[in-house]
Amino acid sequence: MTYLAALRAKRTVLIVMIVLTVLAAIATYFVVRAELRVHTWTQHSPWPFSALLAGTGVIAVIVATILGSALDGVSRAPALAFTRPEPRALSALRIYAVDAVAVLAVWAAGVVLAVIGAVITRTFWVTFGADIAGVLFLFCAVSLMWYALITLTAVFFPGRGGAISGASWAIALILPGLAAIGFPQPVHGLLQALLYLDPMAYLQGHAGVDLGSSPKQSPIDLLFTTAPARAAVAGAIGVVALALATRFWTTREVSA
Questions:
Q1: Contacts with 250 (C-beta within 8 Å, 6 or more apart), sequence order
Q2: Which tens digit of pLDDT belongs to each residue from 30-79?
Q3: Containing H/E element for 47?
Q4: Beta carbons within 8 Å of 199's beta carbon, 6+ residues apart
């Protein structure tokens, strides 16, 4: 099962890396072309490394949502019935580790491509501040949370992992706007409560993320005002959801 998960993660990383490299090459070409046309190089203002992490961190979140249905895909593979017997919980942990490495690899590659583009085009230079750790942990926690919620939901809807991953983005982007509307109670209270399970809401207002439609005084804004606090809550939700997904998956019958 780990082999199947590794193949799936490798294919996802390869596709994402090809897309990122092509986009970075196109952007670099047009920037260099514009600079050469005016026969000068424009040195822009410094760019915080935390902003660079946030921009590329969105790519990591996207990859995490794509890989979130890994257990569903592996459990439907015919090879599952012919693998060497081992505790399914251990298999799940190995799959999670493979996916985590894939997400971090894409994130690191995105940062490297951004830095290379900056060196070639000379458009900005990177500065380092005290908020780097907070942004790093926040995006790691949000990626874990989103991955875990998709994994947990896919356990209850076998064969719908891809649809669940796609639908999660629509819900995550629409829910903050709905929560900002003054619906009568108890609808408004329910929407506000559901924000705690919206990974995107934890990024709103932090690390340069702005959804525009998010409520200005959501419960997350009021209770968790710093990136480390939001990372702690999102990470805790992710760990609990992943533990539940593993528990339910290990007791689910495998269809032949």
A1: 87, 88, 89, 92
A2: 766 666 565 555 556 677 788 888 888 888 999 999 888 777 666 555 55
A3: strand 47-48
A4: 61, 142, 145, 146, 149, 172, 234
